[in-house]
UniProtKB/TrEMBL annotation:
Signal peptide: none annotated. This is Helix-turn-helix domain-containing protein. Residues 20-73 form the HTH cro/C1-type domain. It comes from Streptomyces koelreuteriae. It comes from the Bacteria. CDD domains: HTH_XRE.
């Protein structure tokens, strides 16, 4: 198992590992004795206690039984499952198809009041047109070697999910690097439609759309990985291999600070529209 790049996820795993180690020591068992009682090699005990291997629910049950702590089984299982949910590899998330992945967060979007979105790579899903979303998701399906390409259905689900920007009770603060406008993820017609949609979305009362110009002078904050902040409670970070959910308040605060610095470098209104129009002209 690879170590999570998110300190939030790793800290949660280490908390479980630390408690299991404490239970072993409180029971007066050595690593070898605990392993014998659980019927596995002692190296596994060491890996679990050092958070290098996540324990399964069966592992936790055996561990607690061996240490006389069966009353703590359920709490440790829940804690361990929560830790693992913070770091979700894409290959696991897309097993049921790309459309299922879009549908799985639809209710979460409806429940969120304030969205803060920063993208240095592509147009965020909340603002994608169906043509652009189809191209993006088709590329993802090819890259993941998915046995079934349901990118067209997933794109429709993504656009349907994104209708939340037209519903009352939500606010959207979105910051894009100018390079996003010139990253041609789809053909010229689909790109023109997508850029036109940015012009329309940026005019919505609930949407604040900022663009950081490539010629912005000396930057106060370098481009970051794409991330979204939901109601000051959780940050979703998109990596090549996985989606990382950051929930520790101190880390969420760091992402909020980063977002505000990036937002301050962006241009809005007429200046942002001019950058989008320039990108549309460049298509031809």
């Amino acid at each position: 198992m690879s170590v999570s790049p998110s300190s939030s996820a790793q800290a949660a795993r280490e908390a479980v590992a630390r408690r299991l180690r404490e239970l072993r020591k409180e029971a007066g068992l050595t690593i070898v004795q605990l392993a014998a009682a659980c019927r596995w090699h002692h190296s596994k005990t060491s890996r679990v206690e050092n958070a290098l291997q996540s324990p399964t629910t069966t592992d936790i049950r055996l561990w607690c039984s061996a240490t006389g702590a069966t009353d703590q089984v359920q709490d440790l299982i829940v804690q361990s499952l929560n830790a693992e949910s913070m770091y979700r590899e894409w290959r696991h998330q897309v097993r049921a198809g790309l459309k299922h992945l879009q549908d799985s967060v639809a209710q979460f979007y409806r429940d969120t009041q304030l969205f803060r979105v920063y993208s240095s790579t592509i147009v965020p899903g909340l603002l994608q047109t169906e043509g652009y979303a189809t191209a993006v998701l088709r590329a993802a399906a090819r890259f993941r070697d998915l046995p079934t390409d349901d990118s067209a259905e997933a794109a429709r689900a993504r656009v349907e999910r994104s209708r939340v920007i037209y519903e009352q009770g939500h606010r959207f603060v979105i910051v894009l690097e100018e390079a996003v406008l010139h990253c041609q993820m789809a053909d010229a017609d689909a790109m023109a439609a997508q850029l036109g949609n940015l012009l329309s979305a940026g005019a919505l009362p609930a949407v604040s759309l900022g663009i950081i110009p490539m010629a912005a002078g000396e930057r106060r904050q370098w481009p970051e990985e794409t991330f979204q902040v939901y109601d000051d409670q959780m940050v979703s970070v998109e990596l090549v291999s996985a989606e990382v959910k950051v929930t520790q308040p101190c880390e969420v605060a760091l992402y909020l600070k980063t977002f505000e610095q990036l937002r301050a470098m962006a241009v809005y209104g007429a200046e942002a529209r001019a950058l989008i129009l320039r990108a549309i002209e460049a298509l031809h």
